[in-house]
Amino acid sequence: MTDPEQPNLDPGLEPDAQEAPGAIETVVVAGATGLVGRALCSRLAECGYDVVALVRDPNRAAALFPGPVSLLQWEPDVDGPWQAKVAGADVVVNLVGEPIAPLRWSDARKRILRSSRIATTKRIVAAMSEGSPGPRVLVNASATGIYGDRSSEPLTESSKPGQGFLPQLCIDWEAEAERAATDSRRVVLARLGLVLAADGGGLPRMVAPMRKVMGAVLGSGKQWVPWVHLADAVEALMICIHPEGPTGPVNVVSPSPNTMRDLSVAIGARLGRGIRACVPAFAVRAALGEMAGVLLESQRVLPEALQSVGFEWEYPVVARAVGHLVKK
After folding, report:
1. How far is CA 139 from its chain centroid?
2. Which residues contact 299 (CB under 8 A, 6 or more apart)?
3. What does the CA dihedral 118, 40, 271, 216 come to, rounded to 10 degrees?
4. Strand-pair category, 186-192 with 248-252
5. From the centroid of its chain, how far is CA 29?
6. CATH superfamily of 15-200+226-253+302-308
7. pLDDT tens-digit profile of 55-67?
8. From the CB of residue 15, how many other CB atoms can be counted at a distance below 10 Å?
9. Domain-by-domain residue ranges, the chain?
10. How far apart are the first and last CA of the chain?
11. Which range, of 1-10, 90-99, 238-247, 271-280, averages the lowest pLDDT?
12. What tens digit of pLDDT does each residue of 235-262 get?
């Protein structure tokens, strides 16, 4: 049996082996309808937490949450009952943010990407400050994109940020979240890598063309890709929620970094297809503009903070993760 007051370091533990939460009871999740948000809300509900999902349209969102998850309508830039719910929660998880890919980064798109993260986080932090004493933990999403293009340099939570639009976006996003930190409130900055899932995120877009034609690698294929299986991403966030969880930046990635070629080969092997072509970097940049950096830049990110608390990955190796997610 796992004590919910202690970090659950066994992602494979069956839900019915969880005990009812004690000190932490109510968890409010913003960005709950996204890929990670849906999975996290379901996992929290399985473990007996009172889960409140902030959604723009409760009627449309209802079908996404078959479990006991309360849906509360919100608009980040509009005052409403959501603020009191945030102020009274034990934990707030903020996963809000317009998708970084696949749209080109026009000036207008960049403003949307920044506002959806920074302005929204500012509103959530302000609502938290209205509580007495208010939430004890804020788990705020960030991204491994904060490190920028770093070739084969090993990158841990203590590594300096990179330069460019995406690193600066993450820097400013994290700075806004850190304003919530107090002597009695812990802030976790969950730097998510590429989240691999069967029905969302980037993996299906990589798999689809390989089912029809031969496999291909984007760019040189030598660029390191920080990735994590959705199930492990959720369990890592569960660790962050607990009172004895980590503080500050947490790289939510696999402990076994891989290159783009490694990832492509694993997908090809699962589908019974070889990798016989490369899409040159210039062609990717011509098609996607500045956003192409998300696919071409190299980040060898290591999950030092999760390893320090004894976290165990269910899918630490890319072949196992792809084998679980991709149907032959």
Report:
1. 11
2. 144, 145, 147, 148, 149, 150, 155, 223, 224, 225, 226
3. 10
4. parallel
5. 13
6. NAD(P)-binding Rossmann-like Domain (3.40.50.720)
7. 999 999 999 987 7
8. 11
9. 15-200+226-253+302-308
10. 36
11. 1-10
12. 999 999 988 899 999 999 999 999 999 9
Alpha-carbon distance of 291 to 54, in angstroms, equals 29
Tally of CB atoms within 10 A around 198: 13
Cβ atoms within 10 A of the Cβ of 328, count? 7
Two structure tokens written together for 100: 């970084």
Sign of CA dihedral 189, 193, 198, 203: positive
- E-strand ranges in 37-170 read 50-55, 69-73, 91-94, 137-143, 154-155
**pTM here?**
0.91
- Closest to 93 measured CA to CA, from 232, 299, 236: 236
Quick check: 279 and 217 in contact, CB under 8 A? Answer: yes
Question: What whole-number distance in Å separates Cα of residue 121 and Cα of residue 94?
Answer: 7
- Tell me how crowded residue 6 is: count the other CB atoms within 10 A of its CB: 12
Radius of gyration of the chain (CA): 19
